[in-house]
């Protein structure tokens, strides 16, 4: 419609000018495109261009995302390897289908003594790690933990829930584990097998030959948790309190906040944290625990990963804290138990 035709139409119309413009302005501007967006066969709304000059073939070539997942993949760039993407097609995690989640709660029950010698108790109390002696769950709900791992996204470091995003915070760690969240944040450097042997000799009080044989059996810069417990028992009996305390604390963190995906080993580099038993109280153990869990969650969300490292007790307690009814019997079930049915 030309401008002259529009003026002529307004002269013959009895409509107010404002209403007339609202009705006929789109025709003056050359028409308008429908903004109705229809869902595709997979139930998702395809991404459409806002450029009016784009051709229909270019719009059809734009990515439409993943079925059951995000349609905008500019942020979740690793979604192709996400376990949720494979679960959508019924692939699970391969033949075993389940994520292996293990805790050391039962082992710690037998390894952590009810009372430490006073010489060790003072160091353990000042270290800020004393609460870990009694916080581990004896049984981990693998299905519950796996359900939340499948909602974790590395790019946002958060769980994507139907109502939004959630994540574990330092305040959660402090409240649930009673670990200090203020202090020095220090990431231990990677160590070689040779250095792992030297650290064991200097700070655990073992012989050179014993340390070499053990590190070689671990096939890397690791110590076995059971081996550390034996060293702790040996030095406690010999009243070598510094060696016994280091072995005990390394076994403690290796079974909890620094748990490895092997579930039997601890990285030798963490022994560097306990070189100075009087100074290890200055570390932010809560931050270290959270970073370690984040790192392992960043592995476990991948379809190819089969184990979850870190401290599963922290994750499960966080779930129960914010989702108290998950995994518990609903009110309907309780009512059914109290219903008295008439006799036939």
TrEMBL record:
Carries keyword Transmembrane helix? yes
Q: Which residues cross the membrane?
A: 6-29
The reply on keyword Membrane is yes
Any idea which UniProt keywords this protein has?
Membrane, Transmembrane, Transmembrane helix
Q: Which domain of life is it from?
A: Eukaryota
Q: Which residues form the Aminotransferase-like plant mobile domain?
A: 128-326
GO annotation terms (biological process): meristem maintenance
- A Pfam family assignment: PMD
Q: What protein name applies here?
A: Aminotransferase-like plant mobile domain-containing protein
Source species of the chain: Pisum sativum (Garden pea)
